[in-house]
Amino acid sequence: MSFQDKTIYQIYPRSFRDSTGSGVGDLRGIIEKVPYIASLGVDMVWFNPFFVSPQRDNGYDIADYRAINPSLGTMEDFEELVAALGSHGVGVMLDMVLNHTSTQHEWFQRALAGEKEYQDFYYLRPAGPGGELPNNWVSKFGGNAWAPFTAQYAGMGITPEGAAENGFALNAAGPDAGNPDLYYLHLFDVTQADLNWHNPRVRQEMAAVVKFWLDKGVHGFRFDVINLIGKPQDLPSAPAGTDDRAMYTDGEAVVPFLRELAAASFGQDPHSITVGEMSSTSIEKCILYSNPDSRTLSMAFNFHHLKVDYLDGKKWTRTPFDFDALKSLLSEWGVGMQAGGGWNALFWNNHDQPRANNRFGDVVNFPVESATMLATTIHLMRGTPYVYMGEEIGMTDPDYTSIEEYRDVEAINAFEELVAGGMSREEAFATVHAKARDNSRTPMQWDASATAGFTSGTPWLRPTNQEHINVEAEEAGGRILPYYRKLIRLRKELPLIGYGTFAPYALDHPQVFAYVREYDGQRLLVLNNFYGTPTQVEVPVEFVGGRVLISNYDDAASPAQQAVSLRAYQSLAILI
User: Is position 309 annotated as part of the catalytic site?
Assistant: First the structure.
């Protein structure tokens, strides 16, 4: 299926719409809002996982790939949702977490119970001769990446009551099940055990899972941290002083594993659209993952441009974003992927990132201009744009005041580690508050009521500024939502946007990120001012007098001379 002219909308189901008053979003709540989703003009909706899960990592710890978490709905609800979206020409993209399972998954529970076949589904290794861990890898959620292979650790924090609520049974073998002389690998939470993709049975099971959902009418798949599946079989330690991520990221086995998965599942569907979330990756690898000749994926997510406000490359820090680095990364990936025949997934926001307008804009003085400038920047680039729920109405980070308001295990662990490292609680909270994943997981703001029209109960995360940022207000006379609809429509109407070439322009400008698109005799110059102060930029003479395709200032005029003035956070796209 052609995806170059399409736009994909992302929904975090726990936070979109609650139909029951439980305080947690559900599938029936999404069904209620299908007309709104369709009104955006998007082509497909990517849903974060809503499978059976103990929710240690908000659904990314899957205990059953083929069942809906009861707190979110039923399989009948899902089938109705697929049909409702399909009636508007909107497809469904599911989030496939195939690098790891919950330790409550049947496979891991059978491994704990002593079944050798299932023990080979995971990376189980003995301690070293001196009792040291199998290697020096670090969990992305903090601490080492190994835990003793016993029920005590594998079921950490999961009560029988919690297990029952989420539709699965705890291991019946008791707290001493497993082998205390072995450790299992968990690159994420201790309850997320990494799968051994070198085992052909694991690969067969993963293909069967994808085929199960294909048979349900799903044509889109987003594969979570999929470039981690090709770990070397011997799991070597990282040399002293080096980054351990290099030992397990973008391994040589990733492409053949993906090619095999495609051939056995989604590659048989001519309508499939797939995207891989690529952790700590490179342009060269993402070309391999997304070039059609590789027979793997449609496109790839990378996150390098969202690390330009990391001090010394560390997430849990606070520093202004590096604009030169941002421009360079967007340009290098645009040019590099184009040269290699790869395809970028374009985005600023998702469920794992704080809101982009807080990071790269000014939500106090220029909230509309910031949001629409950022949207213009990616929607007119070469690649497939993704819109994260709430982005289209200008939602911002919540104004939380204490760590107790956060639910995410990563944020809570980070706060504790920062404090343990000597940082004051106030500074530790300010740091976590700037980068927490829950910043984007607050409920969708439908109206100005106390619960933002999200629920009749108590929201699982507190909304904070819905009185002035909500869908109802945007529909009544807002400027952000109509602008998003126009950008999405333009990609369909103008082949240049979907299929044109990409070339950076004026890379040395201190405030402007600019580029030129070209296709079938047409050219488009896109200018984006990333700052709250006016500036000027020289444009090529041929664009003088060109038509303004779109601007986030209503009175923007065609340039009468080469020196073009841009106002605060202004975007201006000129077509010739």
Answer: no
